[in-house]
Specification:
- It is built from 17 helices and 13 strands.
- The chain has about 350 residues and is of the alpha/beta class.
- The strands form three sheets. The chain has a six-stranded mixed sheet with strand order 2-1-3-10-4-13, with helices on both faces. Strands 7-6-8-5-9 form a five-stranded mixed sheet, sandwiched between helices.
- β11 and β12 form a beta hairpin.
- The N terminus is likely disordered.
């Protein structure tokens, strides 16, 4: 006797909440705002935010179905499609959540020893003054943070694979490791750069916006399995997060947003430290500032998961993490990993 299969596209009372993963960084603001301000609820979505310790956890939980949708590092869809460090998974992005938002921070000790910029860092390293190589932290080797650090080092004639040691640390551990001297610097998102500057433990020679403007930092990622199971809800989630990204870009809402983000259950920092990333004058330390946008959530060319920027990310992945399996890239990989069609579907609903 044949039994009919359930239609999973129809939401019922038994449909579980969407498990939405994030790492407690300032650029998780659209997800937190959408939850705290009831935007998901107003769109008829039941969403549970899941705070994760780091990006490896995000990757693994998405691969094994413990998370449905996640805030993700922009190279993650390529990493998971190619099976780098994880079982090959059909994971894709259909929205860019934020661009840039990272900075390179070096220890104040280096500043006292004469390092004031990239050129003086090159002279410092090449002089052999230190008995060991400098150790610099990133949150993942498959991240825009790592790519920005490598690009910046190369722009000052330093080889990121030979002249320094790059280690991986969860975002919330980079500051304490800088203070204890385990690392000499890092490239990470906010609020950790500002915490180092405010505490007098570090200073920023460059921001990611200065290194590569409009570079996707975080994206919205999901598995093909979840999308096929609940496509309508996923498209509605993009619509909601697009609205939340626009809200985060509105200067008049800064105080309200910062009040939410700085709560212990989220960033657990002062609103003043969190505010730096929203400012057009980002404090770099030692009475220096970076002018212009530090972090972008919304605007022309920010949120669309376009193939041009996707190719730039893939090229950086190949350049900075060369591996045998990256020598043969499927021609369809970019369109499989960055789904413009789903984003366009969501935006057509917004426009109508």
């Amino acid at each position: 006797m044949q039994t009919s299969q359930p239609d999973f596209s129809i939401r019922t009372k038994q449909t579980p909440a969407i498990r939405l993963g994030y790492v407690p960084l300032l650029d998780a603001a659209p997800l937190i705002v959408a939850k705290e301000m009831g935007l998901f609820r107003d769109a008829g979505l039941q969403v549970e935010l899941s705070r994760e310790v780091g990006w490896a956890t995000i990757r693994d939980k998405l691969a094994f179905g413990h998370l449905d949708v996640t805030q993700a590092l922009s190279p993650l869809p390529f990493v998971m499609q190619l099976g780098i460090g994880v079982t090959p998974s059909k994971v894709f992005s259909s929205m860019v959540l934020s661009c840039n938002g990272n900075a390179i921070t070096l220890s104040t000790k280096l500043r006292k020893e004469g390092v004031e910029d990239g050129e003086s860092l090159r002279r410092y390293i090449k002089s052999g003054y230190r008995p060991r190589k400098l150790v610099l932290g990133v949150v993942s080797l498959y991240s825009s943070h790592h790519f920005m650090l490598c690009r910046w080092l190369e722009s000052h004639q330093l080889d990121p694979k030979k002249d320094v040691i790059i280690v991986v640390l969860p975002p919330d551990q980079v500051f304490r490791n800088l203070v204890t001297g385990n690392i000499d610097g890092f490239c990470v998102g906010e609020p950790w750069n500002s915490m180092a500057v405010e505490a007098g433990e570090g200073w920023c020679p460059a921001t990611s916006e200065q290194i590569a403007s409009n570079y996707p930092g975080k994206v919205l990622a999901t598995s093909e399995r979840f999308y096929n199971y609940r496509p309508d809800e996923y498209v509605r989630m993009i619509e909601v997060l697009h609205k939340a990204c626009a809200y985060c870009e509105t200067e008049q809402q800064d105080d309200e947003i910062l009040g939410v983000l700085s709560q212990p259950k989220y960033l657990n920092c002062t609103p003043q430290i969190a505010k730096h990333a929203f400012s057009s004058l980002f404090p770099l330390g030692f009475d220096r500032v970076a002018e212009g946008p530090f972090l972008s959530f919304y605007g022309a060319g920010v949120n669309r998961p376009d193939r041009i920027r996707a190719k730039i990310i893939l090229d950086d992945l190949i350049r900075y993490r060369p591996a045998e399996k990256l020598q043969s890239i499927p021609r369809t990989l970019i369109s499989q990993a960055y789904r413009e069609d789903i984003y366009d579907q969501a935006m057509s609903s917004v426009a109508s």
